[in-house]
Structures
1.
Amino acid sequence: MHGGPADAIDLKTLGRVIVVKLRHHGDVLLASPVFTVLKNHVPRAQIDALVYADTQEMLSQHPAISRVHTIDRKWKSSGMLSRALSEGSLYRALRSRRYDLLVHLSDQVRGAWLARMLGCRYAVAPERAAGHAAGCGFWKHSFTHRYPLVARRHAVELNLDALRRIGIQPSEAERRLVLVPGAEAEARVAELLASEGIPDGGFIHLHPASRWRFKCWTVEGTAALIDRLHADGERVVLTSAPDRSELDLVAAIRGRCERAPANLAGKLSLKMVAALAGRAKLFIGVDSAPMHIATAMGTPVVALFGPSGETEWRPWGVAHRTVASSVHPCRPCGQDGCGGGKVSECLTSIAPDAVLEAAHSLLRP
């Protein structure tokens, strides 16, 4: 029998648990296995989540989650009184749940305050680097357990390290991502595909955009890839967020294609993106939330990486290929483009042939 930490918590004492993940969409989705593992190991407990309001679709309808509490990013700019009222309402809602365990999956100081104010018997969070703002002493004494942030470890495993630290060892089967599109999203996507004459499993989902443009491939490369896929007899469906810059990117790509692909850019909610990805034979995109969404839906993925690292952020738990430059020893640098110039040469130098070869390896094994 494998041992565990000497200060492992008594799972039988847990009635309610709050998991805090105040990050972007992809980060929240990569935390979804934490809820599965907790529910499997403490089936009698109610497991709640606290996330930013715009990311709650990543966790809504997760079968292991009882409630999703949210923080609106707009509170910061809503005025002192309005923010105080919103924060007070959230605090009262959380306090009323009487949590036994708080699992904080980032290093924001809000987690330390919550651990203290909610009076949880146990609280676990990552170690903070020496000299971190808000003071290591305050952070250290806010939690009963802390786990190390290990470099070059996948984000899913880092999240699960919080549970390993308190004595819960996840199985391989429990580590898959969970995202439930819901009946409404599924029905709407089925209608859209039918209107384009595209059958389920008969298309490639291509999402070229990211909220950070320095993580995007080139218009020319994407258009050339689409033309090559069309020449192979494949159907391609393009998506993006409704953001103006992303819509412009998709328009520029379609404008350079010999035959424009089906275009659902700006027309889909996050749940609908999941429903679409789940019906695709392959997903192609950059390191972004939609790439992780496709992974959660079990769809094979070709992911292009530039300044971000595939070791930490690669597609999780599905057949995949990562495409990255082999001639830029500086990557992954984590910078917003070379020299902060918003253009990443390690991405713009990727040839369409490399992406097409990766796609072929998954489409025609």
Note: Residues 155 and 312 are 6 Å apart (CA to CA).
2.
Amino acid sequence: MIIALLAIYYLSASSRRENFYDRLTNRVWNISRLLFNTPGYNADRIRRIERNNPFRMHDEKIIVIDFNNEIIYSSDETGEIELRNDIIERVRLSEKVRYRQAPYEVLGVLYVTDLHRFVVIAAATDTEGLSYLNKLRLIMLIACLVSLIMFFMAGWVYSGRALKPISDVIEQVEDISITSLNLRIPGGNETDEIGRLAKTFNRMLERLEKSFSMQKDFIANASHELRTPLTSINGQLEVLVMKDRTSGEYKTALISVLDDIRSLIDLSNRLLLIARTRAEGPINITKKIRIDEILWQAREEISKFKTDYYINISIDDSLTDSDQMMVTGDEYLIKVAVSNIIDNACKYSPNKTVNINLLQSGRFIEIIFEDKGIGIPENDLQKVFEPFYRAENAHSIEGSGIGLPLVSQIINNHNGTIEIKSDKGQGTEVIIKLPQTS
């Protein structure tokens, strides 16, 4: 606004100056024509006529100088206009010269006749124009101050309104704590920045709420699962020390306690492993491993302890080269994932049998685990990857409910996918896809 006002003032001053010099130029030509082109006119008579001329400019003074620098006409009776030789020579060379001799604005013009060249010096004061500029300057100053006050007030009001959504978001965020993660921030208009910020923050709150809820459930379920074998061990030992027992009874009790301890160790290891895989996230391991060797090793290790398990492995004819069965990852973690699936398939199948098919699917190695067990009800399929969750038809079979969540986390960390297809009472099919090594 200040730049615009300065531009207006500059243009107005320039226009005033040009208009003033145009009027002064006209006065020069009029006097010159009267002096040189009108018969019978002399300098004294022209001075008398010009004193009463209504078109005469304020405090006008005109001086005509011949080629000998002699004054042949002058209305400057008091001699206020200084006649400098350098200015006169500049007029003869440039034909027109403008300069200021306070309080006058002076114009020097070269007037040429048939025989002579005259220098005409005209001066006047533009009181009307300067008064107009002074008024304009005052008006602009007042307008600037008033506008700045109005801008400040309007900016205060509108910035307050514009920042109010942010203030509301801050107040609402301050009310959210770990015990009130269910609270959400009103999104308002989701097309502007504040709305998108609120929407993004609400999505973050949803993830935090889900994470805290899972953590709470995990701790509660883990505590329950750990308490069960510990309670069993404690009860058996208390019964054992109540009175003297035979060596056979001690041995039987110790074997039962040992089974509970093994179960407790296995559960602890699984809990530590699932915590580790969740903390690590997607891995960046460059070690290449053969997936078929992992399957054979898992089969061999499981068969040592579960002699009644039948594990059948078949490799598709499309996998003719060992390089086609190479994947990148952690050998131990992938073996844990495969072993858990095999153990579940055999454990929940009456015939204790699992069929494993290894084949190629585009850029992925696909492993299909198929059994004819009890299956998983449809309404439980979406929840089997939640820690400690067990399907309704699996409660009668020993288990902790952390095998599939662990498998899912390991496969996801290896940039793979896991899918389960199952019909209750018909069996289950687990499909794992791992990216081939490029």
Note: The longest strand covers residues 104-112.
3.
Amino acid sequence: MKSIVYFCLALTFSIQVSAQKIDQQSILSTEGSTIPAFAQFLEGYEPQETVFVSWFLKTYFTTADVGLQLLSTDRDQLGETHLRYRQTYKGIPVANSMLLAHVRGGKVIRFNGEIASEIDGNTSTGLSERSALDAALKHIGASVYKWQMPEEEAHLKIEQNDSKATYFPKGELYFHKGAKGRFVLAYRFDIYAHQPISRQYVYVDAASGNILGEQERIVHTDTPGSAVTAYSGTQSIVTDYTGTVYRLRETGRGNGIETYNLQKGTSFAAAVDFIDTNNVWNNVNINKDQYATDAHFGAEKTYDYFFSKFNRNSIDGNGFKLLSYVHYSTNYVNAFWDGTRMTYGDGNATYNHSILQVMKSHTALPNILLILFIHMKAGL
């Protein structure tokens, strides 16, 4: 009897996992990966939240070595819950991986992120943690580190209310991309230098001692960048830096200028940042992400125009934040202002309306559509 019950439960689970269908028009790809950067389930075929991880792993991987570790659960004002996962391989986290599952009514309606499709790394370390740390410190090359200063170590223990707290780096094992894009086992060290000041995660190949990468932990806002826009050529823009990537956000103009990726969805709450690793935004790809910098640059120039011509702090004279959302819905041939933000569709190839035509008809320097909504908003 028990075996029959287990068989029925397994059959039910198998049906639940295999019956999901994705809207093929919604899929955005990731270079070098067979796993979508974004996908939306067809209505009526959404997996239950409880089986999503199993469905995802069964659908995209043939090995049980790959896992997803839940990092956080957040609920927004629209009633959606957003689950954030990190990829693991043989129980070891994969650096720079992330998967977001968006849940409504107990069902996952879409997901997005960056997950490695192929990992076959060795889990054995040929290098000691101490030797790897020496390599990381040589790479940083600071004259003084925080853990070398007794007063800083004492302050940290008081600040953290932890007698064992220390700045001294401890190696954590991660998988990180190595040569030719293959993942290798690495030590990650959190290295806080006092002179010159810096704080970085440094990844050291656990076999060779080579430096695989680093992530800044000291965040800088309003960083000058360069963007290859589709409509205005190469232009200077301002972004911010998270310590890992650059985003299309800045705080220097009014209360800010921010540009987001709707990923062909229609929920502003589910939008994510456009990101870049070196702040040179030459993001020409099949997802048409290059047009995000047109929106960001246009908003910056609009602010500058009204500030220089009319001494006006944004569209309301009080620093109104200029928000732009790109990649609205699927085949949406328009752009609009809704009283709070600018939103841009990608156009429709069937009717020969591209996102460039949408941008051209709604943006200029200064941004014509923004000027129109300034008239509506500010009564000019």
Note: The chain has a mean pLDDT of 83.
